[in-house]
Amino acid sequence: MIAFENISAGYGTRPVLNGVSAAFVRGKVTGIVGPNGAGKTTLFRVALGLMPASGGRVTVLDKPLGEWSRETLARTVAYLPQGSDAHWPVLARELVALGRLPHRAAFAPLSVADAQAVDAAMDRADAMAFATRQMNELSAGERARVLFARALATGAPALLADEPAAYLDPAHQLRLMDLLREEAARGTAVAVTLHDLALASRHCDEVIVLSGGRAVAQGAPDVALSDSVLADVFAIAAERTADGTVVARRRL
Amino acid sequence: MGETLTAATAPRDTAWTVTLVLFAVLAASFVASFLIGPAGISPGAMFAGLFDGQGAAGVIAREIRLPRAALAIVVGAALGASGAALQGLFRNPLAEPGVTGVTSSAGLGAVIALYFGLAAQSAVLLPAFAIAGALASAAILFLLSRAGAGAMALVLAGVAIASLATALTALALSMAPNPYAMTEMVRWMMGSLQDRTALDLWFAAPLVLVGVALLVSAGRGLDALTLGEEAAQSLGVNVASVRGRVVLGVALATGAATAAAGAVSFVGLVVPHVLRRFYGYQPARLILPSALGGAVLVTLADVAIRIVAPDGQLLLGVLTAMLGAPFFLWLILRYRREA
Asked: B27, B189, B223, B225: which one has the fewest Cβ atoms less than 10 Å from its Cβ?
């Protein structure tokens, strides 16, 4: 779905990504892990055309990123930025409806299909209960679910979510991961950055480990999150439960 | 499903009611603005004068009262819509046209025209200079926005432009050739719709129309900006173009309004804020209602000053600032409490 070939990118003279090759595949949940500043968000920004790559090539559905128009790309790749929030206390449902903008002509009202997509997205994100409440009346976790529904409402075949689990309680973190799995089961290419290695190892099909702007390991969770990678990249020793979930034990 | 539908349509009904009320108030205050004035002509004579154009009543009706009443609508609509669009762009309810420096720059242009006595040579020159001033400040903001400046940088640049324009205006005042010229400048800067002619109206109305159209065209992008710039871009919105359209639209609308009426402050701040509770928080939905609300507020204020001070000692800009400034302070206190 989205392929990175030897991508380099940076802010000014500071390089952030250094020759990363990776792919987000349809039907799979790809987890991206790495310490702060490893380039996780930058990888997403490059994939969305929000910042240019200084080297390498990004293709979306086998077509180079540069050949995509802004509008068609918006219908193809949905993005949930890190720490995103609503800047106005709009109603939750209105906020989710913004996810339909790429499908709507200028000044066109919400169509029946749009309204259905909005309702379905809110349902799936478990946010229907506060559809008619203002965003400022909701807790951080509730807002996160509404914002997640906004990204789902676009109905794009690729979904990039930057730390969507950050404000969620454990139950909703698990619900979120289930939801990402459901999206993947519908054929969506799901990519998600995570700090929680347990979530990454337990719920992702593929894991990409970024460190210092390089993809130091990738593959199935047990392969990518090997003991040596955990030691080198995160400086931790970990235990594994019976199902392969990684639980950080102690600092090295 | 049914529950969400009724809940979603209820605020829309309020919006329609408020819109009807605003139109009714606007119509009433427009008529009042037409009928009230220092000449003390009876309503019957005014209407007769309007239709037959005969005698003193005819001249006053057609050349003084009607342009003044219509200009109040144009000026108010420009300021209201500009305020709503800017608050959307900066995602901040405390933004208003003044923060872009457009108002001060238009003022500087007008003061330059007055300083060099150009305004006396031709009635077109003062508004033309004011518009030129507004567009000059907009051009600076536009270039900055093209160069990738974010919303915060634009606000800071606007503040810098406003300070520079204010300083140059003060310089022109202190170097005024005679006390009469100085009085002219000061009175103009205070904002007034007194002694305006149809020429001012024909000058301002098209520019305001184009400006407001630009703002409306940016509405969808402003809505998307509720999610932040990156999310808006990922939804296919060209954020730089939205910024450019808002800056240019505000410059044309507010510039033309300032050229016609001088500095009328706080309308662009207060109106969108009051209307938000009726029309919802989505920026696009607020732009046209704010134009309507602005027209109501300026027309009402212009009627009020003629009732309170029939001798013309109270100027429109002074009244809006006297009412607007306390409101602004109250607004800041309220936001501090909520934060």
From this structure: B27
Residues of B in contact with A90 (CB under 8 A): 226, 280-282
Q: State the helix-helix crossing angle for B179-190 and B102-115, rounded to 10 degrees.
A: 160
Exposed/middle/buried for A25, CB within 10 Å: 0-12, 13-18, 19+? Answer: middle
Q: Which pTM was predicted? A: 0.89
Nearest CB to B234 within list A74, A93, A134? A74
Whole-number average pLDDT of chain A = 91
Give the closest residue to B269 by CA, choosing from B259, B248, B254, B279.
Answer: B254
pLDDT score for B11: 61
Name the band, by pLDDT with cuts 50, 70 and 90, for residue B126.
Answer: confident
Contact predicate A217/A28, CB 8 Å: no
**Lowest-pLDDT range of B182-186, B214-218, B331-335:** B331-335
Q: Which residues of A touch B235 (CB under 8 A)?
A: 74, 98-99, 101-102, 154
CA distance A82 to A114: 25
B91·A91 Cβ contact <8 A: no
- The phi and psi torsions of A194 (rounded to 5 degrees) equal -140, 145
- Identify whether the C-beta of residue B32 lies closer than 8 Å to the C-beta of residue B302: no
For residue B80, give Cα distances in angstroms to B32, B164, B291, B293.
21, 25, 5, 7
Residue A234 is classified by DSSP as I
Residue B160 amino acid letter? A
